Each structure stands twice: as C-alpha cells, then as structure tokens.
Amino acid sequence: MGTSELDQTETHSQINCAQPATRTWQRKFDDEGKKIEMFSMTMHDVVSIIPMILKGVMINAEEKGKGRDTIYDIFRKWNVNCCRGLPLGGIGAGSIGRSYRGYFQHFQIFPALYEEKLILANQFSAFISRPNGKSYSTVLSAPSADDLKGVDKAAIGSWDWKLKEKNCTYHALFPRSWTVYDGEPDPEIKITCRQISPFLPHNYRESSFPVAVFTFTVHNSGSTAADVTLLFTWANSVGGQSELTGNHTNSKMIERDGVHGVLLHHRTADGHPPVTFAIASQETEDIRVTDCPFFTMGSSNSGDFTAKNMWEEIKKHGSFNEARTDKEPRVSKPGSSIGAAVASATTVPAGGTRVVSFAVSWSCPEVKFPDRKTYHRRYTKFYGFDRDAAAESLAHDALLEHLDWESKIEEWQRPILQDKRLPEWYPIALFNELYYLNAGGTIWTDGLPPKISVASSGTGTEPFSLDVFHTNLQGTATGTIKTTADGVLREMTSVMENLHSAAAFGAALLGDSEENVGQFLYLEGMEYHMWNTYDVHFYASFALLSLFPEIELSLQRDFARAVLLHDPRPMRTLNGKTVPRKVLGSVPHDVGLNDPWFELNAYMIHDPSRWKDLNPKFVLQIYRDVVATGNIAFARATWPAVYLAMAYMDQFDRDRDGMIENEGRPDQTYDLWSVSGVSAYTGGIWVVALQAAAAMARIVGDGDTECYFRARHQRAKRVYDDELWNGTYFNYDNSGGKTSSSIQADQLAGQWYAHVCGLEPVVEEEKARSALGTVLDYNVMRVKGGTVGAVNGMRPDGTIDMSSTQSKEIWSGTTYAVAAGMIHEGMLEAAFRTAKGIHDASWSKDGFGYAFQTPEAWTAEGGYRGLHYMRPLSVWAMQWALSPPELHKDLGPLSSPGDASIGQEKFEKVASMLRLPEEVEHEGFLRALCHIIRQLVFPA
What region holds the Glycosyl-hydrolase family 116 catalytic region domain (predicted)? Predict the structure, then answer.
C-alpha cells in the first residue's frame, strides 16, 4: 500500500458518520411546523395586473396546445408543506427530495418538471430481534395520517408504520444530513443515518453524479446481542403517472466487491427518456446482504410476490429467501406498480456498534427539451450512455468512495464552522441554501451540441450572430486589441450576407488550453420556468463562482455569445406588444425554456431588450469573474460582447450626461415596480459597469476605449450623486414622483459590486454607511422588529411603500446582498442583524417554514411568492465579503495611454447602429379599461 493510500485509510478511519456537524439545521419528527401561506394581493394589485393575467392565460393555452412548456402555470396548485429536507444527488443530473420526517418526495429528473408526490414504497425500515424473543420492526419515516389514508392494507399498508416521532431528530448541513433514531424501534438501540451526496467544490467529476449514500450506524446499549436487519425499498417510479403505465422491469445487479443490489428499469411516459434506478448495499465480514428484485403493489395475480409478502419475509427471517426471490421478474402491468428491496443483516453485540451503507443512483443520460433537441448530461463523460451500466456503476462506486467525499466536505466546511466571527445561524443558512444547485431544476450537460439542430431556411427571419470573437482576436498573442469597434462594425455591415443558424453556445469561446466542463442550466424558481435568469444570477452567481468557478465561466460564455445574437422572430409580451425575441447587443433575460440556447428570452412580461440592468450586470459579472479567476483568455474571449453590451446601453442616456435613465416602467429586476429617470439601483450598477468596462479594455489592450469609458464613468458618477443623494440616503429615482423618495433596500447594489470587483466605490464611505444605516433602521428594524428581512421599499415616514406588489415585499436574496454590502462597508453587526431576519423567517422553528424551499419573496406577515428560488444563493456574497479572495487586477499588457476622443468616436458609431426604434404605445381595450377603473377606485 502506497503512502497516499495509507494517508487516505487513516483519514477515513477518523470519520465518524454518526456524528452530526457542529452546526446543523434541526427538526424533531413530531414538529409539524407551520402551514405555509401564499401571499394575497390587494385590490390595487389585482386591478394593476389583470391585463397581464388575461394575456398570460391566452398565451399559455396556445403554448400548451403546441406541446410547449410555459414559464408560469397560474392554475397549478403546488403541494406546499414545511417538511422539506436535504435533496439527493450531485449537480445537474436530476434530484430527489427527502423530507426531514424520513420519506422521499419531490422528484426532479426531467427539465422543468417537479413531481411532488410522496412515494410511500421508498423507505428505510428496521427489524430487530433479541435472544429473549423480543422483536421490533418499523418503517423509519413518519408520513402524515393523510398520506397513509387509503393505502392498501394488503400491500404497503401492511407494513409497520409505528415509528415514535418524538424519539427522532433530523440534522442537515448541505450536502449531508443525519437522522438520529434514539431508541427506535428497540429502546436499547440507537440508529443514526448519515445521508451524503457528491457535492464537492472545485470537483467537476463526482459532483455531476446522480447518486447518494446512506450510512447507518447502529449502536446497541443493551446487555444482549441484537440481530438487526435494515431494509431499503424502492418503487419503479419517477414520481409521476408513468408508475402505473406498465411495462417496467427490475433485475439483479452483478455482484462486485461485495456490492449487491437491484436495477429498476423505468420506461417513463409523455415522451420523457427512460430512467434506470439502482439500490445497493455492500457486504462485509459483519454484514450479509440479500435482495428482492421484484414485489408488486396494487392489483396482483395469484403467485405474485407482494409488498406484504416481502415485509413478512424480512420480519420472519431477517433476510430474503433466495430461492423465492431469484425467480425471473415479470413485467409490471398497467394499473399496478412494482418495487425492489435490499436487506442488510448484522448482529450487534452488547455495547457494540455496526455500520451499514446503502446507495441509490439514477441514470437518465438524455436531457430532452420540448422543441426536440436532446443533450447528454455531464456524468455520461465518465460512465457512458448505457443507462443500466451507469446506474449500477454509480451505486457501486459510491459505496466504495463516499468516505473520500466525506473527508473533502469536512475539509471544505471546517474553516467556516470554526470561524469565531460568525453567529450560530450563519453557517446553517450559508450551506443549506446550496440545496438549490441540486434541486433548482439544474441541468449540467457534457458541453456538446444537441442531437437535433435547426438549419437556417434563408428567409431572413432566423437568428444570426456576429462572429467578432475570431475576427477580433486572431493574431493577438500579446493580448493587445486596437480594433474592437472596427471589428464589430465590419461584422454588423456584412451580417445580412452571412445569415446562419446561431445559438448561445459559449464553448466556442474556449481557448486551446481550456477544458470544456459542459453547459449549465438552472431555473429561476420552481414556479418560474426560465433557464439562467440573468438579472437574478447577478445575485446567485456568488455560489457558483466561489465553489465551481469553471461552471460560472461556462454560463457567462453562453451569455457572451448571446449578446452577439440577433433573433428577429416575433414574441408577444404580456403588456400587449409584439417585439423581436432577441435584439443584437442586448443581454437576454434568460437562455429560454423550450429550446434553451437557441430560443432566448422565455420571459414575456415586458420587452427584455428595454431593461436597463441586464447589460451592465453582464459587464460587471464578466469583469468580476476575470479578476476572481485570473483567466485572461476568458477576458479576451468575452471582450467583444462586453463592448457591444455597453454600446447598446448608450441609447438610454437620453440627455447625454453619461448616465442612463429608466423609462417610467419596471425595466429592471423589480419588474412590477416602476422607476423613472436616474435611479439608485440601475444608476449605481451603470456607474460601476463603466469602470469595469474601462478596466476590461485595459486588460485586452484597447487604450482608446479605456480612456473613453473612464471619462464617462466620472461624469455618470457625478450625476448619480447630484441627482439622488438627499443628505441621508439615495432616493429611489429623481423623477419627483410620489415614490421617488422611497428608501430602497437595494439602493447601493452598484456600490456592493464595486467592492466585490476591487473597483472605485460609487459613493463616499460616509454616504454609503449613512444610506445602509437608513436601510437597517427603516427597511429592516421597523418591520416586525427585524425578524423577517429587509422590505424592498419604505417611505420616509416609516411606512411600507405600498405602490406596487414588489415594493412591499421582502426579497430573501436581496436582503443577503444588502448584508454583503454592509460587510464591505465595515458594518458587520448591521449585516448579521439584517441577514438574520431571512434565516429566522426561512430556517428557524418559529419562522414561516421555508427551509429547503426559500422563496423569492414574502410579505411582513409571511405570505410567500415564488417558492424554491435562485436568488437566495446570494448568501454566498456575504461569505465573499467576509473572506474576500485575492483579485488578479494586474492582468493584461502594459500599453501607452489612449485617446478618449478616438474611443468615443468609434463607440458612438457602433452605438448608433444598435438603437431600437421609438416605441409607439398602443393601449389595448382591457388595459385601458383597467386603467380607468384604477383611476376611479384609487384616485391619486
């Protein structure tokens, strides 16, 4: 045995799987929590959005008629409860949820499809017998009485559902959880189940695996030995209706390294690709493993081995009768369901301990989208495309390697758990919010093009892309670029002669020495089906950049390609307009839904090409990622898109003072909260984007552009301060409207990003601290005593800004971002006080019950909107601020100063070609009618 193997063996021997981490989220099984309530709208809210609702219903009906998914289903009733726990699996190959009460639910294996149904057959169970004849048996979970209502007593209903909930405690710290059964079912037995998934920061192999391991540590405090059998049962189901469609089969795994198990081959329905599950356990000197490849649930024929037979077999013998279960399994019948089981038996001596591990894996190599393009998942690079072979090997390898995952996770989490600066609640929120990178509809592909592609028909209405990446960068080994504008202009004037099918595939921007780690998608939220919503990723991206920077760069490359894409195909918005789907130079709101990367902007409430925050957020994220990773090749590859994104925004500087203006509509991430003129939120982001663009120009050697952006930055910075500072904080906007003086929690988003990027602050420290102190006083502490987070908008008189649905909401991700900004300003106590409200509302026992489903928003009373949302990942921005990484700010060549006038001249040429036509407002009948009603009911 080599030195490294000895070190690994020693490390593994020190791991105690039965010991929860020092700080965890905890619940007792008998804690039923609070009933989760959706937010309610006022009459003012309803009247304001009736036209959008009606338009949305019509568009949704049309889309569904075409077999396409919709971004929001107003009629779907979600099965909300507060019993969520840690989900299973790595990143991007689907996830399976598990309640803190022990049962499995919330399957998410296919794109944008959440199957919430609890599958009662998926269980762990314990059977214990003593020499004195005493025996105990129970399922190790606690479904509610409603869940068990109507269960067939001749099938699963015959199992022993008699767990004493008060003796069971759940602990979670993503990606591990521990369930402690203290005296269950035997009063002298303590069972601890440690669940672990391969979520391993900076690891791009195992982290893609769809598998989880459950290690049971059984301790016998009694005076006699105990015979213990642990049973793992699994239904041949993906959580939906296909469980009962028939033609599913199970088969035994081939034993290797003592690993025994069963494969469950699921055919699925509704055009979804097949899935194979594997459940397995490893036999050792102390553990004997047997399996049951097939039992029936529901209607059965004479001679079938039923769920009841299976349970009685284990209860009687402690293992499966090999002669009985080795029979060739039959195909499941329509209307009936089948399952499989693996049993591990051991004898635990008096005062002794035994350890038993199980694994579950699932293999669905293909990702199929409604518009018929199919991709392969990342894990297939390591396990191939054969579903059955992959599922079997994933389970086998996980059982052999999970202790290595454990040591890597402990090494990652230990410094934060031991950081004395941090309050007790902080690591719980920090790590557990990462559940969304597993359960947020995440898809991680192998990075290759889809199986089915769409060729241009040559009609002139297809998407096209400027190929400036190659025309600008060829021959630039030194990294010096003097012709950014010239290259863009050449492409723009000739593009109509070179139409071709285009997609936002960032892999084309990879350098020769860079690895293609695949493409990454995650949903804006469980209820909001848009992939990689970019204005929200602005907040959430800190988790990926901190833990999986190569995935973050891959996502940004996709958006860099998207900026250069123009798609003139018409798209209808909910405010009644027909607009091009994607405009050249604009950053898309998202990469689509039904045909991601090819059909951008699934968002349809407003025209995203007129949003004011998307483009500057792109510039800021690109620059942040460049200086965080030191990847100069990434900087050079994305620079043309950064330049074009900045040029596109020039049209929104109406008065030519260097500052962009909002247009009296909700044209930014607060998309139901109108803003006009110079605004604290978008204006601040724009100021920093100018500075970031200048820094990018320096890195790539474009001196003229650097000088121009620096001069414009100084002008915009002066405007921001002059127009918005009121002596205490920065006004919402400078329009002079009735809500212009509102106190926006997120008013210093630009200042926050300036600190993140190591750039010059937007405002002086004293003003920043005054503004954030005002936010703490008004938006945080004057609402429920600071226990629910920061309200988006407050009025100077101390009341909540009720002008829109969103101004009166608390946004979890925004609050974390505000807290991060406070840390950068040296306001550590204020930061933790602000963020604690989000933890208390989401994660505390006395909160609103949002654990492992943190919403986008809630009201002061706890009415949620948008469960399972992306933005709360911004808690990792707090960690970035607490332990800032070393930034690579000395990238790029040394070059002589440029000429700002030359940079301006070329920039304005490009900008002039990107201007949108002037809008003509056509108010439809419904919108006009609602406007009249609103004026009558709510006069100004």
Answer: 518-878
Whole-number mean pLDDT of the chain? Answer: 91
Closest CA to 139 of 154, 128, 126: 126
Closest CA to 171 of 71, 73, 79, 100: 100
Q: How far is Cα 684 from Cα 896, in angstroms, rounded to an integer?
A: 30
Q: Which strands make up the sheet holding 565-572, listed edge to edge?
A: 464-465, 565-572, 578-582
User: What is the distance between the alpha carbons of residues 621 and 613, in angstroms, rounded to a whole number?
Assistant: 12
How far is CA 630 from each of CA 408, 634, 853, rounded to the nearest angstrom? 25, 9, 34
Q: Which of 307, 250, 245, 258 is nearest to 277 (CA)?
A: 250
pLDDT computed for residue 920 by the predictor: 63
Structure tokens at 595: 């045909």
Q: What is the pLDDT of residue 639?
A: 98
pLDDT digits (tens, 9 = 90+) for 825-867: 999 999 999 999 999 999 999 999 999 999 999 999 999 999 9
- Joined tokens for residue 306: 């039923």
Percentage helix, strand, coil for the chain under 3-state DSSP, each rounded to 5? 35, 20, 45
Go through the chain and tell me how many residues it has: 940
Long-range contacts of 900-905 (CB under 8 A, 24+ apart): 900/704, 900/707, 900/708, 900/710, 900/711, 901/708, 902/704, 903/702, 903/704, 903/705, 903/706, 903/707, 903/708, 903/709, 904/708
The more confident residue out of 36 and 939 is 36
Q: Which letter, b or e, does each residue of 33-64 get, where b requires 16 or more Cβ atoms within 10 Å of its Cβ?
A: beebeebeeeeebebbbbbbeebbeebbeebe
Structure tokens at 694: 């200048």
3-state secondary structure of 446: coil
**Would you state the structure tokens that stand for residue 455, as one six-digit string?**
């060729």
3-state secondary structure of 108: strand
Q: How far apart are CA 364 and CA 334, in angstroms?
A: 22
| Residue appearing with tokens 């304001």 | 48
User: What is the rounded distance in angstroms from the CA atom of residue 62 to the CA atom of residue 110?
Assistant: 22
Residue whose pair of structure tokens reads 């009603």 in the numeric block: 933
59-92: pLDDT as tens digits: 888 888 888 988 988 777 777 888 999 999 999 9
- Each residue of 367-410: pLDDT tens digit? 999 998 999 999 999 999 999 999 999 999 999 999 999 999 99
CB–CB of 325/291 below 8 Å? yes
Q: Kindly compute the dihedral angle of the four CA atoms of residues 686, 688, 691, 695, in this order, to the nearest 10 degrees.
A: -120
How high is the pLDDT of residue 25?
98
Q: Are strands 578-582 and 662-665 parallel, antiparallel or unpaired?
A: unpaired
Q: Which residues contact 179 (CB under 8 A, 6 or more apart)?
A: 100, 102, 140, 168, 169, 170, 171, 192, 193, 195
Q: Report the run of H or E that residue 414 belongs to, with start and end.
A: helix 387-417
pTM over 0.85, yes/no? yes
DSSP output for 811-868: EHHHHHHHHHHHHHTT-HHHHHHHHHHHHHHHTSTTS-S-TTS--SEE-TT--EESSS
Domains of the chain by start residue, with CATH = 3-35+80-434 (2.70.98.10), 454-933 (1.50.10.10)
Strand locations in 183-225 (E): 189-196, 211-220
Which is nearest to 173 in space by CA: 20, 357, 4, 390?
20
Judge whether 804 and 738 are in contact, CB under 8 Å.
no
- Where helices occur in 763-811 by DSSP H, the ranges are 765-775
Alpha carbons 731 and 391: distance in angstroms, whole number: 56
